[in-house]
Amino acid sequence: MRIGLFSDTYLPEINGVASSVHTLRVQLEKNGHTVYVITTKTESNAEDDDPFVLRLSGIELKKLYGYVLTSPIHINAYNEIKEMQLDLVHAHTEFSVGIFARIVAKLQGLPLVSTYHTTYEDYTHYINLINSETVDKLAKKAVASLSRMYGDSSTEMIAPSQKTKDMLLRYGIKKNIYVVPTGLDLDRFNVKNMNKKKVEEIHKEVNLQEGETLIIFVGRIAKEKSIDLVIDGFEKVKKAGLKCKFVIVGGGPDEDVLHEKVKHLNLQDIVVFVGKKPAVDIPSYYHASDCFVSASITETQGMTYVEALASGLPLFARPDDVLSELVLENETGYYFTTPDEFCEKVKIYLSLSQEEKNALSQHAVQHAKPYDSQEFYRHIFHVYETAIANYSEMYVIEQIRPKSDFIQIVLTSPSSEDIKILVSLDRYFNNGYRKGFKLTQEEIDELLKEEEAVKAYQTCLRKLSIKDRTRKEMYDWLTQNTELDIEVINKLIEKLEEHGFIDDLKYTKSAVYAMKLTLVGENKIIRNLKKKGVPVEMIEEVLQFDDTETEEKNALRWAEKIKPTVKEKSVKMKKKILVQKLMGQGFSSDVIDKVMKSLSFVEEERQEIDNLRKVANKAKKRYEKKYSGFKLRNTVYRYCASMGFDVEDIYVILDEMEWKNEQ
User: Which of 52, 45, 40 is nearest to 80 (CA)?
Assistant: First the structure.
């Protein structure tokens, strides 16, 4: 197999990613594969004569020490890579060279495997120069979004630890994520292969005195490594009179800051910076030491911890999920959280007998064995085979058909019929779909699921083009008429709101205006809009712009309109009916009281006797089939009284009426 390893960093740089890429390259080549490394060019490796390493020029970022920012587009390099005739692209970074890897994979039609080495959310302080909580949140959100986009563009994905996998799942990445710890060539770190001469040179270099315990840190000197906490711990160690020396191997942006800290604390005699060292010499620095320490909690796997274990060094570390299987308290090392606690743990280690220290070293070596590079190769190659197999069965976009506000893509596959799928414009442009673009079955399933949402969205637009509706009305329609998940429905509603197709405030203003024109009172307006899901606060906010005088005028107009339709009633009953109708129309009691006082019932009062006479005659006619005589008269009386007529007036009218068989 011909494999391209794309990384922003590679040997001779000293860091976990560079070591991981080199280890993988060595194991792949041992197993008969042809491997090319595509990486960046720094001053130290400008003239790399390795024919299988292609270096891309860029700008070295001093702040990030050794990190080279390069363009994601390299035409000449692309042509060189084309001649490599790769079978697979393996990206070991998300930015710069990682973007270039994705371009190469897409344009050359190659499966893409991605390994997520770095927890970028722990590095946002490099851009958060003003130490703003808001900036930090935005930066972490951007990291999650970019990580999700890069992950979703991969054929298969690898995480070096369960901690990293959990983080990627939290970001929302839906790819299969394989947990494959980075392997090591354990023989390099085996004390049996110790270069005793080199070890002696190192002891002289750091001025190690007889009886001193040498504790080492190897890695990048940067804020996220929390080396300052360890230095504070050595201040406590010195005050406690413990015979120890701290050697820091590596370089980085915080080197000057830590030098000043050591000088300020007067620790120059026990804290030694030896700078960057060639990778070939790193095992000797471990072999020259008694223990390893790191206070970092930003590791995705912690390769230097594994290197130290393989070298037989007990570990001092801060608690972190990624270290749970590496640092076993009192068995392979010790945990600490503060400088004082670090000092106490060092004191415990120094109090051990030589036999007990040897036992710690033996346990350390045993715990490094699962990270053997050959085991690492087997797991990685399994992912490669899976990626190639899945990629060969991927669907290819054959046609792209633009519609009004979505895209229809037509896909073909060697093993199935053509598929037509509607995709949103956002999905189409964000994923960079084009003719010849390949999609996995998993991606097809996701698009088919999303298609239901696209169709629902189109239906929503049609409904809203006919008639404005509230958020609740559209939400209810989607839940009752589709099988979409609530989460998808919420996103559709949010999208409709974002584009202004749903606007409850605008709807409320329009509805209030329309109902006011039809002389509807505020109480009824509130009831009607509440049924449509409009918050009471929003309704009241709109209503507050209408003055009380307008409400009273509308109520009066409504009463005057309804008043003539209430016929053949007593004035008392007519007033009661008008009050009920005004209440039904949504006017408040205060407004109704004012309206009723302002209405004139002079004409009705003048016609009161005539109305009573009509009501009594109608009642008599209605009940005389059932009653007669005195019983009929009493029934008519009760009926007229229930209509609100005056008792004396009723007697007058009843006396002038004729009653048969009256006793």
Answer: 52
The CA–CA distances, whole Å, from 7 to 45, 70, 92, 226, 527 equal 15, 11, 5, 25, 63
For β-strands 59-61 and 112-115, DSSP reports them as: unpaired
Overall average pLDDT of the 164-185 stretch:
83
Strand, helix or coil at 651?
helix
**pLDDT tens per residue across span 344-384:** 999 999 999 999 999 999 999 998 888 888 889 999 999 99
User: What is the DSSP track for 86-117?
Assistant: -SEEEE--SSTHHHHHHHHHHHHT--EEEE--
Strand partners, 37: 5, 53
Tell me how crowded residue 169 is: count the other CB atoms within 10 A of its CB: 13
Is residue 129's pLDDT more than 60? no
Q: Are 22 and 92 in contact (CB under 8 A)?
A: no
Which pLDDT tens digit goes with each residue over 77-88? 999 999 999 999
pLDDT tens-digit readout, 451-489: 888 889 889 988 998 989 999 999 999 999 998 989 989
Maximum average pLDDT range among 268-277, 591-600, 605-614: 268-277
Contacts of 4 (CB under 8 A, 6+ apart): 35, 36, 37, 38, 81, 84, 86, 88, 89, 90, 101, 104
Quote the pLDDT of residue 118.
64
For residue 471 the two structure tokens come to 């958020």
Task: Please tell me whether residue 647 adopts helix, strand or coil conformation.
Answer: helix
Beta-carbon contacts of 429 under 8 Å, excluding residues fewer than 6 positions away, are none
What mean pLDDT is reported for the chain? 86
CB atoms within 10 A of CB 625: 8
Phi, psi torsion values for 156, nearest 5 degrees: -140, 160
Is residue 294 within 8 Å of 304, Cβ to Cβ? yes
Look at residue 80 and give its three-state secondary structure.
Answer: helix
- The two tokens of residue 418 are 């053509």
- In one letter, which amino acid is 429? F
Question: How are strands ordered across the β-sheet holding 291-294?
Answer: 271-275, 244-249, 213-218, 291-294, 315-317, 333-335
Phi, psi torsion values for 115, nearest 5 degrees: -110, 125
The DSSP H or E segment spanning 438 is: strand 438-439
Among the listed ranges 126-140, 316-330, 544-558, which one has the minimum average pLDDT value?
A: 126-140
The least confident of 337-346, 412-421, 557-566 is: 412-421
Give the tens place of pLDDT for each residue, 537-592. 988 888 887 665 677 888 888 888 888 888 878 888 888 888 888 888 888 888 88
The candidate with the shortest Cα–Cα distance to 531, out of 586, 600, 493, is 586
Structure tokens at 597: 């006082």
Closest CA to 53 of 95, 20, 96, 22: 22
Q: Helix 571-584 vs helix 589-598: angle between axes, to the nearest 10 degrees?
A: 140
Does 319 sit behind a cis peptide bond, omega within 30 degrees of 0 on the bond before it?
no
Pairing of strands 53-56, 244-249: unpaired
- Nearest 5°: the CA angle 182, 186, 188 is 120
Q: 10 Å Cβ neighbour count for 351?
A: 8
C-alpha 111/C-alpha 485 separation (Å) is 32
- DSSP state for residue 372 in the 8-state scheme: B
Whole-prediction pTM: 0.52
Residue 273's Cα: distance from chain center in Å?
Answer: 41
Angle between helices 536-543 and 504-517 (to 10 degrees): 50
Are residues 373 and 185 in contact, defined by beta-carbon separation less than 8 angstroms?
yes
Amino acid at residue number 66: G
Band (29; pLDDT cuts 50, 70, 90): very high
